[in-house]
Amino acid sequence: MTIDWNEWRDYHLLHPVENIPEIILYWKHSTIFDVGENLTVPDEFTVEERQTGMWWRHLVAGGGAGAVSRTCTAPLDRLKVLMQVHASRSNNMCIIGGFTQMIREGGPRSLWRGNGINVLKIAPESAIKFMAYEQIKRFIGTDQEMLRIHERLLAGSLAGAIAQSSIYPMEVLKTRMALRKTGQYSGMLDCAKNILAKEGMAAFYKGYIPNMLGIIPYAGIDLAVYETLKNTWLQRYAVNSADPGVFVLLACGTISSTCGQLASYPLALVRTRMQAQASVEGAPEVTMRGLFKHILKTEGAFGLYRGLAPNFMKVIPAVSISYVVYENLKMTLGVDSR
Questions:
Q1: Which long-range contacts (CB under 8 A, 24 or more apart) does 94-101 make?
Q2: Cys-Cys link to 46, which of 21, 163, 234, 248 (CB 3.0-4.6 A)?
Q3: pTM of the model
Q4: What pLDDT is stored for residue 134 in this prediction?
């Protein structure tokens, strides 16, 4: 009635995982994937992770990974903003033409305009969103360790709205910095002072409504697609292990983020145009509805998807870079890798 070492080891290696929190550990999503839009529903952390302080290490690793991936893909992000604001039927901006125009106007360094504030806003946004998510979960009052999908969507969307409201002036600054001409502002503070002096405090909340409306389709579709792909994989292939492997994890995250972006893209474009309004001197003030009507009338439905090509071009490199950096930072911070 004895078992040897190999039998004991094989039982633990091959026994199917039935503990849901353990499966969750493999499927971290929002802390790993940073595609420039921080509208995803926050990850669940197990009781053990909360007690041991692993949760903040995950968030720090995710923030660092986001900073590196955003910096690496910043030229494509700036091109997306320029195409969203300036491209039209009469001014058909292509990718190569856009890059050439940027380099000609301000040299190679101009490709990274607006990246500084884009990286700076990661820390406050992630921290506020995580804290708000935990508080909303308590308010919902569920006694289960893991929330159901509709509860996660509700809590995640509300947490996203609180975080976005808190750091929204930084979003406006990012757009203005990305669109600025050479020598227009000496830096972020100079840009903020100029906006405040010429347009008042209200300018820092331009495009706020379409931004808030964009959270629901982005977070909802991203979460639904990710959960569907995850459950499909677990049902079909998780025979001996719940570990999906790097490729499956990256593929699920990339597909779900892309679907979420596609759904909310028209609102993101309108938000960017509203944020940029005063940067075109003498431009009349327009509402969200008026802008939608104007784009559909002058450019058709295609006009709502200007800049989509560079946006999608940066998804795969952004996801790949953020994953690699996240894994390395996790090891540095002493997070257990499974």
A1: 95/309, 95/310, 95/313, 98/310, 99/75
A2: 21
A3: 0.82
A4: 83
